[in-house]
Design brief:
Number of helices: 11
Order of helices and strands: EHEHEHEHHEHEEHEEEHEEHEEHH
Radius of gyration: 19 Å
Number of strands: 14
Largest sheet: 7 strands, parallel
Oligomer: single chain
Shape: globular
Helix content: 40-55%
């Protein structure tokens, strides 16, 4: 029952490792530590009582990937998180994103296709929908031209997996998730970006803690009720549990197609200003922020229709926006103390 989790010490990866270990899987985590920390292993061990096997590998190095799979031929599934994930950074440095997100995926799939059990869960994104024409977004919504190189790498990644599954023994689930936030209730693991946060919630918690002077709200002139962008914010623990459910579906051969796709979100959209208000409520902190110009690559609104995941996977989000923000604030305070 050995599962490889690439990017296993990252934000979503580490929470998924916890849920896998809680379900009795043996986990091997790969990470190059470019946006994570080795201390995350200790947090996972404190929560689950067990430290996963860990190998520091950069998946862009093909020979390192080959050597890893030679050593671990008993892997029965891969959950692939390893990727760069900031929309703004991808606009500024597209080649980094194409190299990191595409090459690593190709090298992992090349090795996985040689294994007797080739089950693959792909960390995709709602960015593949671009600015969807209709809300909430269903899995049948057309994939729009990407608004950023990051979004494009997720679209290309999905296309690669679909092509490869047709001619190999690989079975895959593409999980298109919306905006993961929050932290484990123990506050032993959470989101800890290196450098300036690219995502809203860690920027909020760092501003509330005093590490940042103020939060920038990118645009208040969008065609939304309060003028700010709307997103579907999902608690990272809900998200992690969905990966385990999707993996078990493949292991139990319950998948109806070689490649299945599911949206993962709460089904509810919240604007940036609504998130700020909700954070102020759960934390008791007044948050300094300023309205600045729009950011390239941002879509106006994106929230999920989760009916398919609810019915087919038997999964649904259990935590509210307030729950997620409270856990993120608890984590921020613990990590700074």
């Amino acid at each position: 029952m050995k599962i490889l989790v690439t990017g296993g010490l990252g934000f979503i990866g580490s929470h998924t490792v916890v849920e896998l270990q809680n379900e009795g899987f043996e986990v091997v985590a790969i990470d190059n530590l470019s946006n994570s920390s080795i201390e995350v292993l200790d947090g996972i061990e404190k929560i689950t009582g067990k430290k996963p096997i860990f190998e520091k590998i950069d998946l862009r190095e093909k020979s390192a990937v080959q050597n890893f799979f030679k050593k671990h031929q008993d892997i029965i599934g891969v959950i692939h998180f390893a990727a760069s994930k900031a929309v703004g950074e991808s606009v500024e440095n597209p080649l980094l994103y194409y190299e990191n997100n595409i090459n690593s995926l190709v090298y992992v799939l090349q090795e996985l296709a040689n294994l007797p059990q080739a089950n693959f869960i792909f960390s995709s994104s709602c960015t593949v929908y671009g600015q969807a024409e209709k809300m909430p977004i269903t899995e049948d919504a057309s994939v729009q031209p990407a608004n950023s190189p990051y979004g494009n790498t997720k679209q290309i990644g999905e296309e690669i997996i679909n092509d490869v599954a047709k001619v190999t023994n690989i079975n895959a689930v593409l999980l298109r998730y919306f905006n993961p936030i929050g932290a484990h209730s123990s506050a032993e693991i959470g989101e800890l970006p290196i450098g300036v946060p690219q995502n809203l919630v860690p920027y909020i918690t760092q501003t509330a803690y005093g590490l940042r002077k103020e939060l920038s709200v990118y645009g208040n002139d969008y065609p939304t009720p309060d003028g700010t962008c709307i997103r579907d914010y999902i608690h990272v623990v809900d998200l992690a549990k969905a990966h385990v459910v999707a993996l078990q579906r493949l292991l139990n051969k319950q998948n109806l197609e070689k490649v299945e796709t599911f949206n993962l979100g709460t089904g509810k959209g919240s604007s940036v200003l609504e998130v700020i208000t909700a954070f102020e409520k759960v934390s008791g902190q007044k948050l300094p922020y300023k309205i600045v110009g729009r950011r390239e690559g941002d879509v106006i609104s994106a929230y999920a229709n989760t009916d398919k995941a609810n019915k087919v996977l038997g999964w649904e989000a259990a935590f509210s926006l307030e729950d997620a923000l409270a856990s993120a604030w608890k984590w921020e305070q613990k990590v700074r103390s």
